[in-house]
Amino acid sequence: MREIHEGIYGNHSGARALQKKIIRAGYYWPTMQAKANRFVQHCDKCQRFANLLHSPPKAVICRFGIPRVLVSDNGKQFDNPRFRQFSQELGIQNHYSTPSHPQANGQVEVSNRSLLKLIKTRLEGAKGLWPEELPSILWAYRTTVRIPIGETPFQMTYGIEAVVPIEIRLTTLRTAAYDDLGNEEQLRLNLDLIDEVREMAEKRMKRYQEKMARIYNSRVKPRQFLIGDLILRKVTLATRNPSEGKLGPNWEGPYKVVEIRRPGTYHLEDANGRRLPHPWNAEHLRKYYP
């Protein structure tokens, strides 16, 4: 284990990768996973060169203030007692998206899809270099006008457009006519107008969302259920019985609808009266006829 982790071809990988390397080398024992976790946990170099912990109070709260609502998926980094306590102490409402329904957190999904496209375009075949390219990709994203709001993310945050490299290599009016006094006055004016810019962006966003909603509603007819209805839930990779494989049923249940969270999203309980921890979207449900 020590040779694989820190030997001539070791790279001080995590416990899971260490375990897989040991298996590929032809070794296995029942407590290997626990042993690998303990070995990596006590590795001196892994502890000294570990990634710095992301601190929300320092990186987010002290920079942008306390948010009113935090929308996230159901990952354990967000759905755990420690994070819930952190949110409760600051008065932040935690809203969790519906499992297996990425549209519930659509703004994040759209942003991630845009970033993924930029990463693929920039890297081409060198996929392993994405961490080095990520800062410049984020810079490009933040200085590009977003269609729904008609502004750049940089402008929405700081009240002024960023100076991009092309303005340094090829002189522009903004860089050529720069003077300290005029720059200070313009910055103060931009700060005075930033609320108006954000209000206009919010109005554009609402119009854009209404337009997209009309297009979506004209194409999609959602399933609707009533409280007390018996329904089946689609079997996903996370809920499928591994022993059944592809021969298992596609739907599980029945469950009973006990609450309508919002149109198309429902809280369910099983046959024993136990309520499922998260609401489910109608996309993954179908009516059950006893």
TrEMBL record:
* Classification via PANTHER family: RIBONUCLEASE H (PTHR48475:SF2)
Q: Name one GO biological process term.
A: DNA integration
Where does this protein come from, organism-wise? Fagus sylvatica (Beechnut)
Give the protein's recorded name. Answer: Integrase catalytic domain-containing protein
Coiled coil as a keyword?
A: yes
Listed A to Z, the keywords are: Coiled coil
Enumerate the GO terms in the molecular function aspect.
nucleic acid binding
Any idea where the Integrase catalytic domain is? Answer: 58-161
Where are the bilayer-spanning segments?
none
